[in-house]
Amino acid sequence: MKRFRPDVDAPEYHGPYAPYDIIKEGTIAFVVVAILVVALATLFGSPDTKAVTIRSWSNADPVDFATTALGELNGTTITAGYGAPYNHGSLGQELGPLHLANLVGVTIPVNPVQDFVIAPLTSVPNDHPLRVALAQWHTASSAQRATWVSRYSHAAVHMTWSNGHIVVPATDTGPLGVMINSLTQMARSGALDQALVTGHGFYTTNYTKPLLFVADGTYFANLAKSQHLLGNQWGMMNETDSYPGQAWLWLYTFWYQVPPFSSSPNADVQVWAIMMLASALLLLVPFIPGLRSIPRKVRVYRLIWREHYRTS
């Protein structure tokens, strides 16, 4: 006969049996859950915070928008230095010797200067001063452009919004004053949102560029902070307006709260690696000697099926 292995095989059951109506139990469970879902949805509703668009951002904080647009020209924004899959700005996060994103390469090319500033401004019709400014920008050398941007950036710490215009106390900045003001007006009208999602093909539902542009500013980050949605605020398991969020994500977002992940520039890939390892261990539980025997050793099943074991 085959030798019984207590770590693998379950002993043959010789006790009594009790009838069990799975249809009735399933129906009761469904009805109870349905009532709870309807009741809780009626009581708590759903968060209905309006989406942040470039239009809403530039109208709420035009100075932050203009400062971010200048950062795109200067190459100092998050997107400009992000790296793969958008550009070659950096090698990306590391996992030991591996730069995972860089291994995939640039699959969604984004050039902040061209995509966020120059191309949208080029699409503005019937604006002679803007046309002159863009011509001046295109004919200038890279060194001249860098000089204009540097001068404008140094004065931008005193940037203000006055009488519907961005005001920067700077001289010898070439076309930048006209370009930044025109882009801000374009953003406040909503035209920039459309310009950034318009792409090739019939459907224009790729919001990568406007989302990256919005994320480069401080306005969106400040909104997230006020709603406790940042990573260091357990943001991945929260929702806006203090609504209950995805509690099942606690194990993932937990790692962002503890050292060294809480301060690591590679936290995303490190947490991802830990969760992949934890998931693999969970899947391999039936094949790991000792670990697979824990349920039988702790005998929790006898508590769950206590009525059955009382009669056996």
Cα shape: elongated
Structural class: mainly alpha
Q: What is the residue-averaged pLDDT?
A: 89
For the largest beta-sheet, the strand count, sense and barrel status come to:
2 strands, antiparallel
> What percentage of residues falls in helices of 4 or more residues?
40-55%
Low-confidence runs of at least 5 consecutive residues = none
Rg from Cα:
29 Å
In DSSP terms (H or I, runs of 4 or more residues), the helix count works out at 16
- Order of the strands making up the biggest sheet: 1-2
Count of DSSP strands: 4
User: Which band does the percent of strand residues land in?
Assistant: under 5%
The run of helices and strands is HHHEEHHHHEEHHHHHHHHH
Q: Give the end-to-end Cα distance, rounded to a whole number of Å.
A: 27 Å
Provide structural commentary.
The protein has 312 residues and is mostly helical. It has a domain at 54-208. The protein has 16 helices and four strands. A two-stranded antiparallel sheet has the order 1-2. A two-stranded antiparallel ribbon has the order 3-4. α3 crosses α5 and α6 packs across α8.
